[in-house]
Design a protein that fits this description.
Length: 137
């Protein structure tokens, strides 16, 4: 690889590191297919400009984490970290899917990943100092 290619790769890495403020893991359980919608809150001061881009995209219509990462041209993990920040600020929400919004006796008895992510987000918001259990990986 050329010296110019190495410099560009290093610049991208440094930008991602500063974008996430050195964090390597999101606070919320988010799958690649987790769908997000704009919420009533606003991002906090000092948030990355990508947070405004995420909000603008989610205001147009619901977007998945993967779609947001692709549209921003950022690594999925970095986008998950930014989405976690926006979930904490109530600027984004994980909408409840239709089968769980109403009582349907014919619906699949297992909760979706989206429902579990929404539940996890709500519990972490209610009890932020609760013991964190390691995620299976």
């Amino acid at each position: 690889m050329s010296a110019h290619g190495d410099a560009a790769e290093d610049a991208t890495f440094v930008r991602t590191y500063t974008l996430t403020r050195g964090r390597t893991r999101p606070r919320h359980l988010l799958g690649l297919d987790t769908v997000l919608d704009a919420g009533p809150g606003r991002p906090g001061p000092g948030q990355a400009e990508e947070c405004e881009e995420i909000l603008a995209l989610c205001r147009e219509h619901r977007r998945s984490v993967t779609e947001l990462a692709g549209r921003l041209g950022r690594p999925v993990t970095a986008v998950k970290i930014l989405v976690s920040d926006l979930l904490d600020a109530d600027a984004l929400v994980v909408p409840v899917t239709a089968p769980y919004a109403a009582s349907d006796t014919n619906a699949d008895a297992r909760p979706s990943l989206q429902m579990l992510a929404a539940l996890s987000t709500a519990l972490k918001r209610k009890w932020p100092d609760a013991i964190a259990y390691p995620q299976a990986g």
